[in-house]
Amino acid sequence: EGFSKYLTWITLDHIGSSLLSPPGRLHNRRTLLGLRLRLAFEITRNFIRDLFLIELNTTKMQSACQNGSLETVKSLIEDQGHNVNSIPGSDWTPIIYATYYDQPAILRYLIQKGANANGQLNMGATAVFVACEHQKLASLKVLIEEGRADPNLACNASGCHPFLKCCENGNLDIVKYMVEDARCNMNQQQTDGATGFFMACQHNRLAVVNYLCDQGVDADVGKRDSATPIIVASELGHTEVVRAICTRARSNKSADTAMYNGVTPLYKACEHGHFEIVKILVEQGGVDPDLPKNDGVSPLFTACQMGHLDIIRYLAEECGADVNKAKNDGVTPVYMAAEYRNVAIVEYLVAKDADLTKRSVNGLTALHAACIQHVPETVEVLLQAGADLEARDNGGFTPLCNACEWGRARIAALLLGFGADARAAGWNGNTGLHLAAWKGHIEIVQQFLGADADQYGTVSLASQKNHYGYTPLHLAALQGAHPAVRALLLR
Q1: Over the stretch 385-436, which tens digit does the pLDDT of each residue have?
Q2: Burial letters for 403-422: b for 16+ Cβ neighbours within 10 Å, e otherwise?
Q3: Is residue 403 a contact partner of residue 371, using CB atoms and an 8 Å limit?
Q4: Distance CA 168, CA 197 (A)
Q5: Are 400 and 415 in contact (CB under 8 A)?
Q6: What domains are defined for the chain?
Q7: What are the start and end residues of each ANK repeat (predicted)?
Q8: What is the pLDDT of residues 290-321, one digit of tens each?
Q9: How many angstroms separate the CA atoms of 326 and 306, rounded?
Q10: Cα(78)–Cα(68) distance, rounded to whole angstroms?
């Protein structure tokens, strides 16, 4: 504003002076240049002076509030005409400064002088919000009781409100004051749906959680993404918070509440390995241990995926969870454990009579998955448990074909040692040798062509054609797999 004022004034003055100047002088370049320099100097000097005065007044008010100097504040307002509701050049008002520095006496004076206790900063924060965020209880009481400030007034952009902030910080005294004296709305939500109770659960503020449960807060109010307080507490491992919700909250559905995709608190606890929370949810929350997500993934399934054997054992043995419960695409817990290379879990599930014949929608069994992931120990466990060596996926490929295609030489040898059919081919006629030659996996090619390979019938296998008329040598040559070509030529 100062810059615009001086620019306008000096420009008009310059125009007026120019009109009154003699014609010869008006066209004098040297005179015009000097005038421009003078104008620039005047504009800059006055603009800097205004900025300095604004900064000086702001600094004085801030310093007075910080030091608790009521007399200085009075002087600024009564003697120097300082606006009680604004400070030039700043969106911080005197009442915000007094709240931030926790100066109740200054707050009382400002309120008596007509300061707006509900005034907001540019981002929408009020003095009550500042008091809750920075835990200034004395100032909060003055604002509510003497300034009649609105305890529920939220920020403009995020919708974050004072009660949410004091719950997040975990100051129980302020929370109690807001509930019992300020009569705030305990269930008020910000823009994303979070409540004060949600934030207390997320930040593990147990004392606040217990108090709000006793006050009858709605423990089921969740965010817009449908995450609820107990879900976020279960995910983050806040054991006592989960226990409080299960035992103290006035709700019958918190423990079983699910997100839009079917994720439950039990699922989150199993996913992140929070064993104690799993036990609390089952034993005190009464949840269904087999309740799956929308895609069919059960709590036990996700524990298998993430490698939490203690949780798997508890769910299977203590809760009766189904170790064969597959998700919607047919993948079973033992398949997932094999795919994620967890030998101990595969061994446990096999001991619990996991069904090794179940297939995914792609026709894959747990043995297929183990062969692809290259975990010989898992493959051996499955083979000793009677897994089908010749099970075919939707492409007609056996586990041996998968091992050959992916270059799993140790597993290919293991499968052949257990009697896998070396001639088994997919629906396109490609055998394990075709696939190994095509991919250039020379070690597997040599396994088939070795001195001890006659028992697999590899002499005829090397000449076997797929449905397109190609032998393994053709495929190796097409792919430029020189070592495989050399081995096949010298067989």
Answers
A1: 999 999 999 999 999 999 999 999 999 999 999 999 888 999 999 999 999 9
A2: bbbbbbbebbebbbeeebbb
A3: yes
A4: 8
A5: yes
A6: 54-159+172-181 (1.25.40.20), 389-399+406-490 (1.25.40.20)
A7: 261-285, 295-328, 329-361, 362-394, 428-454, 468-491
A8: 999 999 999 999 999 999 999 999 999 999 99
A9: 16
A10: 17
